[in-house]
Amino acid sequence: DVSAALLAHIRKVAEGQIGKSLTKAVISVPAYFDAIAVGTTLEAAKRAGFSDRRPCPPGPFPTRWRPPRPS
């Protein structure tokens, strides 16, 4: 319930900043999460209003994401 509330708040803030409804999310989970913990995390995302949830396996990724620059 706490995870779902936190994700819902993050979604609401993001929607306010970009002015569009968000329905998709990439959910990153720690490497030590087992299948049950990953499933619970994805269920929290569903309760937060994300209809398309994609788990992101642990691995090297950028520490900061930047939107692409317009051409």
Task: Characterise the protein shown here.
The protein is α+β, with helices and mostly antiparallel strands and 71 residues long. The protein has a two-stranded parallel ribbon. The chain contains 2 helices and 2 strands, in the order H-E-H-E. The longest helix is centred in the first third of the chain and has 17 residues, at 2-18. The mean pLDDT is 83. Helix 1 packs across helix 2.
Give the ordered list of helices and strands: HEHE
**Major beta sheet, specifics?**
2 strands, parallel
Q: Note the gap between the termini.
A: 42 Å
The overall average pLDDT, rounded, is 83
**Shape, please?**
globular
Regarding quaternary structure, what we see is single chain
Quickly give the structural class.
alpha+beta
Give the topology:
Blueprint: H1 2-18, E1 24-28, H2 35-47, E2 52-56
Parallel strand pairs: 1-2
Helix pairs in contact: 1-2
Keywords:
alpha+beta, 2 helices, single chain, two-stranded parallel sheet, globular, 2 strands, 71 residues
In short:
42% of the residues lie in helices and 14% in strands. Helix 1 packs across helix 2 (35-47).
